[in-house]
Design brief:
Layout: H1 3-17, H2 26-39, H3 45-54, H4 58-67, H5 80-96, E1 102-107, H6 114-125, E2 134-141, H7 144-152, E3 154-156, H8 157-161, H9 166-172, E4 173-176, E5 179-182, H10 184-187, E6 190-194, E7 207-212, H11 221-234, E8 235-243, E9 256-258, E10 265-268, H12 271-274, H13 276-281, H14 291-294, H15 305-309
Parallel strand pairs: 1-2, 1-7, 2-6, 7-8
Antiparallel strand pairs: 3-5, 4-5, 8-10, 9-10
Helix pairs in contact: 5-6
The structure holds S-adenosylmethionine.
Length: 320
């Protein structure tokens, strides 16, 4: 690929999805876009770039943007954020929203659904604490393809072996041949919508919790800063932002501050941050993890040795 074509793709992807493609990532272009070249019988990558440059083939543009996204996800990924959601975030909201009994959550890079469904299963397990509450989980992603899979709630043996405690598999999934399908009650707890984080959030409404994990890492600093500033406006003043293990607000924005003792959880500056001492002390009185939830061990957050030996059945872009 010529330097001019590579630099065209860099700026096309940055504008369309925020992806900050480093100069040493030529191999990603080759592995992700060559299948499109073959499928569309374009001959080579130069012809694909030529077609993109015309700006007239919207379907091709979308397929290229989606192909360049990394959709890796798994149930209860990294474990700790989900423990914190169950043990600190939900109990704090159960107190602060006791009069309205409403909980709104946004999973801003929902991918194939494992993250919003992990939250849905936790909420289901906490139905004692959240009795007669209405909870809404909105899962959004740029890619329509991954959201189709998320809506179906159908996962391979490999996917359910990654992070999902076996008690939860038995309780919430039904085996369908070689696949496992989440039961309709959990699926119905999540609404999915195609949405680009570069677009305006004005129609999204206000949320109590935003999970925005493992997507900001693909953006450059100005884009991260812009997304975080706009998220701050969608989050309740006493709400919670949860980022991925390799992500932080530090050095990017003063709209959020890290929450004491909860790595990866951020509070909006002002009211939320001022309430830190109480929040840190919050632990649901009398709330003990249910037996299914207690199966969430750190080992469960990683592929089992058996799973690690299984050849991935998913396309390469579903892996990191
Ligand atoms: C690595 S996955 C993270 C999935 C999940 N949050 C997790 O941590 O397991 C990143 C997701 O971000 C989505 N994405 C990338 N750029 C985006 C954008 N500009 N707007 C919305 N979603 C985007 C990708 O399609 C992909 O599904």
């Amino acid at each position: 690929m010529t330097p001019a074509d590579f630099s065209f793709l860099q700026s096309f992807l940055k504008t369309r999805s925020g992806l900050d493609l480093a100069a040493d990532k030529q191999y990603l272009i080759d592995s992700r876009l060559n299948p499109i070249v073959r499928k569309r019988q374009l001959g080579d990558l130069a012809n694909l770039v030529r077609a993109l440059r015309t700006g007239t083939d919207k379907a091709l543009e979308n397929v290229v943007v989606e192909a360049m996204t990394t959709n890796e996800s798994f149930f209860f990924r990294d474990k700790t954020p989900f423990d914190q959601f169950r043990d600190t975030i939900v109990p704090a909201i159960a107190k602060s929203r006791a009069s309205t009994r409403k909980l709104r959550i946004w999973c801003a890079a929902a991918s194939t659904g494992q993250e919003p469904y992990s939250l849905a299963m936790i909420i289901k397990e906490m139905s004692g604490t959240l009795a007669n509450w209405s909870s809404e989980i909105i899962g959004t992603d740029l890619s329509t393809e991954v959201l189709e899979k998320a809506r179906a709630g159908l996962y391979s043996q490999f996917e359910v072996q990654r992070g999902l405690p076996v008690q939860m598999l038995v309780k919430y999934f039904e085996q369908q041949g070689e696949m496992w399908q989440l039961n309709p009650a959990i699926r119905a707890m999540v609404q999915y919508k195609t949405f680009n984080l570069l677009d305006s959030f004005s129609g999204m409404g206000q949320f109590d919790v935003i999970f925005c994990r493992n997507v900001l890492i693909y953006f450059d600093a100005p884009t991260k800063r812009d997304v975080l500033a706009r998220m701050a406006r969608q989050l309740a003043p006493d709400g919670f932002l949860v980022l991925g293990a390799a992500e932080t607000v530090v050095g990017l924005t003063t709209d959020f501050v890290p929450m004491n003792g909860c790595r990866g959880v951020y509070l909006p500056t002002g009211k939320g941050a001022a309430a830190q001492p109480q929040l840190k002390a919050v632990n649901a009185p009398g709330l003990t993890p249910s037996s299914a939830m207690s199966g969430l061990s750190s080992a469960a957050a990683k592929p089992t040795p058996a799973a690690s030996n299984v050849l991935p059945l998913t396309p390469s872009r579903f892996r990191t």
